Amino acid sequence: MEHGENAGWGRISRAGRKVNELTIIEFPDGTKVRAASLRERREHDSWRDFGLYLDSGWRPSWSSVLIPWVDFGLPESPPDAVDQICAAFKRAKTGQHIEVGCKCGLGRTGTVLACMAVLAGVPSQKAVLWIREHYDKHAVETPDQEEWVNWFAQQITLRSDLTEGKAHD
User: What is the pTM of this model?
Assistant: First the structure.
């Protein structure tokens, strides 16, 4: 994770959020994505190449995908969510600046970040803990979301087209 004033995005304490600071997560494989809440939405952002959003409130006018996913719940279409999470991570892996966001940036965003941690090589049973240690201790808000991260890992293991042959157990 990057700290300090790096293009305006620094690590935030959720307890004392600072306006105009966002969080960059650096995964163990070096891939980076930015996490944001709807409150931190920036219409004109020269940093962002693509957005992966989990709340319709974002209403992005930039290149993005919206995964229909209710607050405190799971994606409406889990297979489509797997595809979109993998595609966004692949973009980030090539160096594109990817932003992931939901309403508050914790539950759904944390769940997607934990899935991306799996794609980066974190074992699925440790991915939620990894995100809580490297992003926010309240990330991934429900037991169903925690279990979904494990389900995600099973899906990518079964679908080698998404993982380039990596095992993520």
Answer: 0.83
